[in-house]
């Protein structure tokens, strides 16, 4: 009997030791998580709060505010297609104009009539057009289309138009095509950043969102190693969310992998699906297509966000501060003149290694790789006409204020070899980037 009691005591002791070890292991894991929550100084556990579902009301409000009406290529006349139309009411004088992003057959004659629909009433407008800003600097004779901005102008106030109509005078069959207008000065938006209550007003709307990002999947190579890496695509969104960006307008949304979409839907990010059913061949048309997306992105975000950028999923920005808070980018850039609308970011062509877990662990770049376009951070404080000028006022940001990475395959390295992009960065900026890396590491 005594032997059985000793055996029972031994079993109880072993079980107790096992429970103690398991408790200690779980306690260490909890301390690890709390360490990072405290490290980021967020007593509301901001990292963890992102993993919740959005309500239906949230979706309806923001989709209505930023994505509607959906842009779609629509035939107007025989030789032209319109993508999106924006109504801009004059501030100081009566009237306003519609601005429409259009592409047309190379060499086609531009001759249209236009009018507005206001509550079932037709108001005749004055038509004019201009070629897109890139047309003056691109000499691509192989292109089959030309970019335009169509204007339909009125000189008196007659209410808020819902549609603008165009009729091609040169077409054999005259027909009017109606385009739904998006108002550049909206009437209903959230009453302050990060809240969802809408406040109707007829006054010009103040900036509500710290920043938005437009995602270019039209010109992005979806067959690249980067595009096939789910973690890399997720990090594009998670990293910019860590900077304070929670609203992403994704052009050609349908090509985004379903696995990525399902994961992002569990966060409180707002993804807006914008189609791009382009009617012409896209061969050797990257610059022209990018300009269309850039123009739509700027006009779509005007009066909704303080900053915006057009980025491919393999392009990440590393500003010296977040887009929210006392030391936000907006406050840091206040010493620049207000007429400066865009800030150029130095861009490093970083070698992408799919075996590395985090993008920031890729430290080698090729200094001899040159891009066909520059990356600009746009400050949306100027009228749309000034934002879309061919030579909009810009300034190049120093590395201490921010830079960008463009990840890709380093197959043909230049004669100067690869360099470490961390060399030359100030320690405070490197510490800021490391803190962002740790935050993404917790989420990925």
TrEMBL record:
Enzyme Commission identifier(s): 2.4.1.-
A GO MF label: glycosyltransferase activity
Uppermost EC category: transferase
GO cellular component, one term: cytoplasm
Keywords: Glycosyltransferase, Membrane, Transferase, Transmembrane, Transmembrane helix
Pfam families in the cross-refs: Glyco_transf_92 (PF01697)
Localization per record: Membrane
Bilayer topology annotation: Single-pass membrane protein
Major subcellular site: membrane
Record-stated family: Belongs to the glycosyltransferase 92 family.
Protein name, as recorded: Glycosyltransferase family 92 protein
Species of origin: Drosophila busckii
